[in-house]
Amino acid sequence: MAVNAPIVVAVDGSDTALEALRWGALAAVRENRSLRVVGVVETVAAGYAPGVLMTPVVAEALHADARRAVDEAIAAATKVSADVDAEGEVREGRPALVLREISSGAHLLVVGRRGRGGVAGLLLGSVSSDVAAHADCPVVVVSGPVPQTGPVVVGVDGSAISQAALGAAFTQAAELGTSLVVVSTYPGFSGEGFYDQDEVLAQFRDGTTESVERQVAEHRRDHPAADTVSVETAVVAGDPAPRIIEAAGDAQLIVLGSRGRGGFRGLLLGSTSQAVLHTASCPVMIVHSERSR
């Protein structure tokens, strides 16, 4: 990835895509990066409606619609900030494959939670699942109007990928000028699990707290920008997704690693990630690798 790689936003003319565009435009200005707006035209007719023939007239209309969505998005970006350096393009092909290819040269890929046209079902369908699983850069999923205040919330579990997420969360909090809430969970028990349940829970809690504190200290040491960020830790028992959503009630961004272990096992494609992406009211950043720091 180039040092000055752009922030890429996928648009399709939907309201949610425009919200994603606004998030991407603000991030581009904050990080002094260019903004690349991409529309995707799927050339396989079945991608729109089974049985529809992809005639030249239909293809031309789809291209025109995608170009219009891109132009409208660039106009919206300039309204967000006169300082944004935006350019747009329309690509042709399978949306998931196109966005995956583009992600290899992007700093961030930003998408709306629900789309239409060339990026239909961007969050919940096959396109979003593919991009979230295989993108070569962090993916930010925007569900609606973007909060302008509140902390950044990050889920950690001690895995390498959650360490990358923690680094990205520190960076985002510093750039947004806000605080960071670090959430980690440990197993909880219901009913009469065994006679020393309280003692075992205390051991889980203390071990998890020690691990989180160590991870935060390491990032403060390795990343100078982290010194400007106020950190609160939330170590709680139970399933990760509800705890993250609860901590993010007033957040402006949630950051998660693409795959976790322990309390965050299957964080990308399993029930935890799906629950957070389905229910979060603020943007969610999915971090894929150490390079995301």
Automatic annotation (TrEMBL):
<feature type="domain" description="UspA">
    <location>
        <begin position="151"/>
        <end position="288"/>
    </location>
</feature>
<dbReference type="Pfam" id="PF00582">
    <property type="entry name" value="Usp"/>
</dbReference>
<feature type="domain" description="UspA">
    <location>
        <begin position="6"/>
        <end position="142"/>
    </location>
</feature>
<protein>
    <submittedName>
        <fullName>UspA domain-containing protein</fullName>
    </submittedName>
</protein>
<comment type="similarity">
    <text>Belongs to the universal stress protein A family.</text>
</comment>
<dbReference type="InterPro" id="IPR006016">
    <property type="entry name" value="UspA"/>
</dbReference>
<dbReference type="InterPro" id="IPR014729">
    <property type="entry name" value="Rossmann-like_a/b/a_fold"/>
</dbReference>
<dbReference type="InterPro" id="IPR006015">
    <property type="entry name" value="Universal_stress_UspA"/>
</dbReference>
